[in-house]
Amino acid sequence: MPRHLKIATFNVNGIRTRLPHLLQWLAQEKPDVACLQELKAADEGFPREEVERAGYGALWVGQRSWNGVAVLARGADPVESRRALPGDRADAQSRYLEVAAHGVMVGCLYLPNGNPQPGPKFDYKLRWFERLIRHARGLYDSGHPVVLAGDFNVVPTDEDIYDPKHWRKDALLQPETRDCYRRLLAQGWIDALRAVHPDARIYTFWDYFRQHWQRDAGLRIDHLLLNPQLQPRLADAGVDRWVRGLEKASDHAPVWIKLRRTAAGTAASKRAAKSKPARPAASGAS
Protein backbone atom coordinates (compact mmCIF):
# COMPACT_ATOMS: atom_id res chain seq x y z
CA MET A 1 0.00 0.00 0.00
CA PRO A 2 1.48 3.40 -0.98
CA ARG A 3 2.41 5.69 1.88
CA HIS A 4 0.45 8.57 0.43
CA LEU A 5 -3.10 9.29 -0.63
CA LYS A 6 -3.15 11.27 -3.88
CA ILE A 7 -6.08 13.59 -4.53
CA ALA A 8 -6.33 15.56 -7.76
CA THR A 9 -8.58 18.02 -9.55
CA PHE A 10 -8.87 18.35 -13.33
CA ASN A 11 -11.11 20.55 -15.46
CA VAL A 12 -11.40 18.22 -18.44
CA ASN A 13 -13.25 20.74 -20.66
CA GLY A 14 -15.48 18.07 -22.19
CA ILE A 15 -15.19 14.52 -20.89
CA ARG A 16 -16.13 12.85 -24.17
CA THR A 17 -13.73 14.96 -26.21
CA ARG A 18 -10.86 14.52 -23.73
CA LEU A 19 -11.62 10.95 -22.65
CA PRO A 20 -8.37 9.53 -24.10
CA HIS A 21 -6.42 12.20 -22.20
CA LEU A 22 -8.31 11.45 -18.98
CA LEU A 23 -7.67 7.71 -19.25
CA GLN A 24 -4.00 8.26 -20.08
CA TRP A 25 -3.63 10.54 -17.07
CA LEU A 26 -5.39 8.09 -14.73
CA ALA A 27 -3.18 5.23 -15.92
CA GLN A 28 0.05 7.21 -15.60
CA GLU A 29 -0.50 9.29 -12.47
CA LYS A 30 -2.90 6.99 -10.57
CA PRO A 31 -4.68 9.49 -8.32
CA ASP A 32 -6.65 7.82 -5.55
CA VAL A 33 -9.36 10.47 -5.86
CA ALA A 34 -9.93 12.58 -8.98
CA CYS A 35 -12.32 15.53 -9.05
CA LEU A 36 -13.43 16.47 -12.55
CA GLN A 37 -15.13 19.63 -13.77
CA GLU A 38 -16.75 20.87 -16.96
CA LEU A 39 -17.94 17.46 -18.09
CA LYS A 40 -20.18 19.11 -20.71
CA ALA A 41 -22.27 15.95 -20.88
CA ALA A 42 -25.68 14.84 -19.65
CA ASP A 43 -25.76 12.11 -17.01
CA GLU A 44 -26.32 9.40 -19.59
CA GLY A 45 -23.31 10.64 -21.54
CA PHE A 46 -20.82 9.99 -18.74
CA PRO A 47 -18.29 7.31 -19.82
CA ARG A 48 -19.02 5.00 -16.91
CA GLU A 49 -17.78 1.78 -18.47
CA GLU A 50 -14.48 3.27 -19.61
CA VAL A 51 -13.85 4.78 -16.18
CA GLU A 52 -14.67 1.49 -14.45
CA ARG A 53 -12.32 -0.42 -16.75
CA ALA A 54 -9.62 2.03 -15.68
CA GLY A 55 -10.18 0.88 -12.08
CA TYR A 56 -12.31 3.70 -10.73
CA GLY A 57 -15.73 3.98 -9.15
CA ALA A 58 -17.49 7.22 -9.97
CA LEU A 59 -20.28 9.58 -9.04
CA TRP A 60 -21.27 12.47 -11.27
CA VAL A 61 -23.74 15.27 -11.84
CA GLY A 62 -23.99 16.03 -15.53
CA GLN A 63 -25.47 18.83 -17.59
CA ARG A 64 -25.86 18.79 -21.34
CA SER A 65 -23.26 20.97 -23.11
CA TRP A 66 -22.29 22.89 -19.96
CA ASN A 67 -20.87 22.48 -16.47
CA GLY A 68 -20.95 19.03 -14.83
CA VAL A 69 -18.76 17.59 -12.06
CA ALA A 70 -17.61 14.10 -11.09
CA VAL A 71 -15.53 12.36 -8.44
CA LEU A 72 -13.60 9.18 -9.23
CA ALA A 73 -12.18 6.86 -6.55
CA ARG A 74 -9.48 4.36 -7.41
CA GLY A 75 -10.49 0.81 -6.51
CA ALA A 76 -13.49 2.00 -4.52
CA ASP A 77 -16.96 3.48 -4.73
CA PRO A 78 -17.26 7.09 -3.59
CA VAL A 79 -20.19 7.57 -1.22
CA GLU A 80 -22.44 10.49 -2.03
CA SER A 81 -22.98 13.15 0.62
CA ARG A 82 -24.44 15.99 -1.44
CA ARG A 83 -24.98 16.69 -5.14
CA ALA A 84 -25.73 20.40 -5.10
CA LEU A 85 -24.49 23.40 -3.17
CA PRO A 86 -27.14 24.42 -0.62
CA GLY A 87 -28.67 27.86 -0.44
CA ASP A 88 -30.61 28.18 -3.70
CA ARG A 89 -33.07 25.46 -4.69
CA ALA A 90 -33.73 27.23 -8.00
CA ASP A 91 -30.11 26.88 -9.10
CA ALA A 92 -30.11 24.09 -11.71
CA GLN A 93 -26.47 24.39 -12.77
CA SER A 94 -24.41 21.26 -12.07
CA ARG A 95 -21.44 22.65 -10.19
CA TYR A 96 -21.01 20.80 -6.89
CA LEU A 97 -20.67 17.21 -5.73
CA GLU A 98 -19.64 16.10 -2.25
CA VAL A 99 -18.53 12.56 -1.50
CA ALA A 100 -16.62 10.44 0.98
CA ALA A 101 -13.74 8.48 -0.54
CA HIS A 102 -10.69 6.78 0.98
CA GLY A 103 -11.42 8.22 4.41
CA VAL A 104 -11.68 11.85 3.24
CA MET A 105 -14.68 14.09 2.57
CA VAL A 106 -14.23 15.72 -0.82
CA GLY A 107 -16.15 18.69 -2.15
CA CYS A 108 -15.70 18.88 -5.94
CA LEU A 109 -16.69 22.29 -7.31
CA TYR A 110 -16.83 24.28 -10.50
CA LEU A 111 -17.27 27.88 -9.47
CA PRO A 112 -18.93 30.17 -12.06
CA ASN A 113 -16.61 32.08 -14.36
CA GLY A 114 -18.55 35.34 -14.03
CA ASN A 115 -17.71 36.96 -17.36
CA PRO A 116 -18.66 39.39 -18.69
CA GLN A 117 -18.62 41.66 -15.69
CA PRO A 118 -20.36 43.64 -14.48
CA GLY A 119 -23.60 41.87 -15.23
CA PRO A 120 -25.85 38.94 -14.29
CA LYS A 121 -23.15 36.31 -14.72
CA PHE A 122 -20.82 38.10 -12.33
CA ASP A 123 -23.66 38.59 -9.84
CA TYR A 124 -24.36 34.85 -10.01
CA LYS A 125 -20.67 34.10 -9.44
CA LEU A 126 -20.62 36.16 -6.25
CA ARG A 127 -23.87 34.66 -4.98
CA TRP A 128 -22.52 31.17 -5.61
CA PHE A 129 -19.27 32.05 -3.84
CA GLU A 130 -21.20 33.31 -0.80
CA ARG A 131 -23.12 30.03 -0.69
CA LEU A 132 -19.83 28.14 -0.84
CA ILE A 133 -18.39 30.17 2.02
CA ARG A 134 -21.43 29.40 4.19
CA HIS A 135 -21.37 25.69 3.38
CA ALA A 136 -17.59 25.46 3.81
CA ARG A 137 -17.91 26.73 7.39
CA GLY A 138 -19.96 23.67 8.28
CA LEU A 139 -17.49 21.35 6.58
CA TYR A 140 -14.60 23.05 8.32
CA ASP A 141 -16.27 22.63 11.72
CA SER A 142 -17.36 19.04 11.09
CA GLY A 143 -14.24 17.44 12.54
CA HIS A 144 -13.87 15.26 9.44
CA PRO A 145 -10.87 15.46 7.10
CA VAL A 146 -12.09 17.62 4.20
CA VAL A 147 -10.71 18.74 0.83
CA LEU A 148 -12.40 21.39 -1.31
CA ALA A 149 -11.09 20.79 -4.80
CA GLY A 150 -11.88 22.19 -8.21
CA ASP A 151 -11.86 25.05 -10.65
CA PHE A 152 -12.50 28.07 -8.44
CA ASN A 153 -12.25 30.55 -11.31
CA VAL A 154 -10.33 32.95 -9.11
CA VAL A 155 -6.73 34.14 -9.45
CA PRO A 156 -5.91 34.71 -5.76
CA THR A 157 -3.09 37.24 -6.22
CA ASP A 158 -1.07 38.91 -8.95
CA GLU A 159 1.63 36.28 -8.31
CA ASP A 160 -0.79 33.68 -9.67
CA ILE A 161 -0.98 35.07 -13.21
CA TYR A 162 1.62 35.73 -15.88
CA ASP A 163 0.59 39.35 -16.52
CA PRO A 164 -2.23 40.82 -14.44
CA LYS A 165 -2.48 44.14 -16.26
CA HIS A 166 -4.13 42.55 -19.30
CA TRP A 167 -6.72 40.79 -17.10
CA ARG A 168 -7.81 43.60 -14.78
CA LYS A 169 -11.33 43.66 -16.19
CA ASP A 170 -11.76 39.89 -16.06
CA ALA A 171 -14.10 38.39 -13.43
CA LEU A 172 -11.30 36.11 -12.19
CA LEU A 173 -9.30 39.06 -10.84
CA GLN A 174 -12.02 41.36 -9.55
CA PRO A 175 -11.59 42.63 -5.98
CA GLU A 176 -14.93 41.08 -5.01
CA THR A 177 -13.83 37.68 -6.34
CA ARG A 178 -10.52 37.80 -4.54
CA ASP A 179 -12.19 38.98 -1.35
CA CYS A 180 -14.49 35.94 -1.40
CA TYR A 181 -11.48 33.66 -1.74
CA ARG A 182 -9.68 35.42 1.11
CA ARG A 183 -12.72 35.11 3.35
CA LEU A 184 -12.95 31.41 2.54
CA LEU A 185 -9.30 30.89 3.51
CA ALA A 186 -9.84 33.00 6.62
CA GLN A 187 -12.04 30.22 7.99
CA GLY A 188 -8.80 28.29 8.40
CA TRP A 189 -8.47 26.43 5.09
CA ILE A 190 -5.03 26.26 3.50
CA ASP A 191 -4.32 26.53 -0.21
CA ALA A 192 -2.29 23.32 -0.54
CA LEU A 193 -0.38 24.16 -3.72
CA ARG A 194 0.68 27.53 -2.37
CA ALA A 195 1.57 26.02 1.03
CA VAL A 196 4.01 23.61 -0.62
CA HIS A 197 5.32 26.17 -3.14
CA PRO A 198 5.00 29.54 -1.38
CA ASP A 199 7.13 31.57 -3.81
CA ALA A 200 6.92 29.68 -7.10
CA ARG A 201 5.20 30.84 -10.25
CA ILE A 202 2.81 27.94 -10.77
CA TYR A 203 -0.04 27.89 -13.26
CA THR A 204 -2.91 25.49 -13.83
CA PHE A 205 -4.67 27.09 -16.82
CA TRP A 206 -3.46 28.38 -20.18
CA ASP A 207 -6.09 29.59 -22.63
CA TYR A 208 -6.03 28.75 -26.31
CA PHE A 209 -5.19 32.26 -27.52
CA ARG A 210 -1.93 33.97 -28.49
CA GLN A 211 0.20 30.87 -27.82
CA HIS A 212 -0.27 31.22 -24.08
CA TRP A 213 0.65 27.58 -23.48
CA GLN A 214 3.76 27.78 -25.62
CA ARG A 215 4.81 30.99 -23.82
CA ASP A 216 3.85 29.65 -20.37
CA ALA A 217 1.48 32.59 -19.99
CA GLY A 218 -0.79 30.95 -17.45
CA LEU A 219 -3.11 31.48 -14.50
CA ARG A 220 -3.56 29.56 -11.26
CA ILE A 221 -7.30 29.03 -10.83
CA ASP A 222 -7.56 25.34 -9.83
CA HIS A 223 -7.14 24.84 -6.10
CA LEU A 224 -7.22 22.22 -3.36
CA LEU A 225 -8.07 23.55 0.10
CA LEU A 226 -7.49 21.53 3.27
CA ASN A 227 -9.12 21.84 6.70
CA PRO A 228 -7.09 21.41 9.93
CA GLN A 229 -7.60 17.64 10.08
CA LEU A 230 -5.66 17.26 6.81
CA GLN A 231 -3.13 20.07 7.00
CA PRO A 232 -0.56 18.09 9.05
CA ARG A 233 -0.80 15.24 6.52
CA LEU A 234 0.14 17.36 3.49
CA ALA A 235 3.32 15.89 2.01
CA ASP A 236 3.51 17.31 -1.51
CA ALA A 237 1.57 19.11 -4.24
CA GLY A 238 2.05 19.82 -7.92
CA VAL A 239 0.68 20.22 -11.43
CA ASP A 240 0.72 17.57 -14.17
CA ARG A 241 1.71 20.00 -16.90
CA TRP A 242 2.36 17.25 -19.43
CA VAL A 243 -1.41 16.76 -19.81
CA ARG A 244 -1.81 20.33 -21.07
CA GLY A 245 0.83 19.64 -23.70
CA LEU A 246 -1.14 16.82 -25.34
CA GLU A 247 -2.71 17.36 -28.75
CA LYS A 248 -6.15 19.02 -28.48
CA ALA A 249 -5.78 19.17 -24.70
CA SER A 250 -8.00 20.81 -22.14
CA ASP A 251 -6.89 24.34 -21.32
CA HIS A 252 -6.36 23.17 -17.71
CA ALA A 253 -3.76 20.80 -16.27
CA PRO A 254 -4.50 18.45 -13.37
CA VAL A 255 -3.47 19.65 -9.92
CA TRP A 256 -2.69 17.17 -7.16
CA ILE A 257 -1.74 16.75 -3.53
CA LYS A 258 -0.24 13.86 -1.61
CA LEU A 259 -1.44 13.21 1.93
CA ARG A 260 0.27 10.94 4.43
CA ARG A 261 -1.97 7.99 5.11
CA THR A 262 -3.28 7.24 8.57
CA ALA A 263 -3.58 3.73 9.95
CA ALA A 264 -7.37 3.89 9.71
CA GLY A 265 -7.25 5.21 6.17
CA THR A 266 -4.84 2.49 5.09
CA ALA A 267 -7.10 -0.22 6.50
CA ALA A 268 -10.11 1.25 4.73
CA SER A 269 -8.21 1.43 1.45
CA LYS A 270 -7.19 -2.23 1.73
CA ARG A 271 -10.80 -3.24 2.29
CA ALA A 272 -11.96 -1.15 -0.65
CA ALA A 273 -9.28 -2.56 -2.93
CA LYS A 274 -10.69 -6.07 -2.44
CA SER A 275 -14.02 -5.07 -3.94
CA LYS A 276 -14.61 -4.24 -7.59
CA PRO A 277 -16.15 -0.79 -8.21
CA ALA A 278 -19.89 -1.06 -8.73
CA ARG A 279 -21.73 0.72 -11.49
CA PRO A 280 -23.32 3.81 -9.91
CA ALA A 281 -26.64 4.95 -11.27
CA ALA A 282 -26.64 8.34 -13.00
CA SER A 283 -28.99 10.99 -11.75
CA GLY A 284 -29.46 14.65 -12.53
CA ALA A 285 -28.75 17.72 -10.47
CA SER A 286 -31.32 18.66 -7.89
Automatic annotation (TrEMBL):
Similarity section: Belongs to the DNA repair enzymes AP/ExoA family.
Enzyme Commission number(s) from the entry: 3.1.11.2
Organism listed in the record: Luteimonas salinisoli
Free-text comment on the cofactor: Probably binds two magnesium or manganese ions per subunit.
Matches recorded under Pfam families: Exo_endo_phos
Alphabetized UniProt keyword annotations: Hydrolase, Magnesium, Manganese, Metal-binding
Gene3D superfamilies the record matches: Endonuclease/exonuclease/phosphatase
Gene: xth
Protein name: Exodeoxyribonuclease III
Cofactor(s) listed: Mg(2+); Mn(2+)
Lineage: superkingdom: Bacteria
Sequence ranges assigned to domain Endonuclease/exonuclease/phosphatase in this UniProt record: 8-252
